[in-house]
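A quick aside before the break. I want you to see a complete sequence-to-structure record at least once, exactly as it would be stored in a machine-readable document. Don't worry about memorizing anything.
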Amino acid sequence: MNIAYFGSEASNTHIVALQLFENENLISKATILDCFRAVENGEIEKAVVPLENSIEGTVSTTLDFLYEFEGIKIEAEAVMPITHHLMIHPDNQEIEKIYSHPQALAQCYHFLNNQYKEVIKQEFGSTAAAAKRVAENPEKKYAAIANLYAAKYYNLKVLHTNIQDFEQNHTKFIVISKKEQNLSLNKNKIAEKTSLILTLPEDHAGGLHQVLSVFAWRKMNLTKIESRTLKTGLGNYFFFINIDGNWESVLHKNAIEELNSIGVDVKFLGHYNEYLLEG
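That is the input. The structure line, written in tokens, reads:
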């Protein structure tokens, strides 16, 4: 089976894909958009992309593509602790520029500000790609912020470990495909959830309250609700919603019918398991 993942080899998404699909053919994609397109056109069966970080919040592009791409479903969610480490080429001792993904740079802001305030920070496509840039330029005084797997993979020297500003740093990743199924994996299952995207017919007073009441009287536990602009004008949004627990109750399925009856467009993204992985 061909499984795509966002980023370079040794990226955090690659590590997640290795743990979820260790016996499958893993294919690197440069962007999250490339992952969605590969699933849509049938080039690959599934893809692994980041959804949310506990420090920096939701990966907005992933939410946007879940809305934009018809027929794309979520099969599973995986949570992995994220650690960041500063690494250089073993032939170098000085640092003039530090490369990493923008979120990694943001997650290490206080460390970088205290230890390397005058050093240039350069955003890069992924943490692993940053590590690769350092490895391929031994004559340059470059450093990268990436994971320990990347340091080992690219034979880099780790100068500082665990430089993230907060210890409880986790990222959620989702497995997307064109199949509506709950992917069962031999991993540590920690939750069961359902994801929906809701688009209200118009912006009016009490509109969101009316939508939320559909879930409230059925005692459905919403663990996440986030709005994203529709890009059609100010004040136009869609809402990404997670519902905790199973999706077998007649009340749950009737909730979609009630939402449709009040003019809400409902996109069912899937009912799936959430797994906890090793960092």
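Two observations worth writing down. The CA atoms of residues 5 and 14 lie 6 Å apart. The mean pLDDT is 92. We'll return to this after the break.
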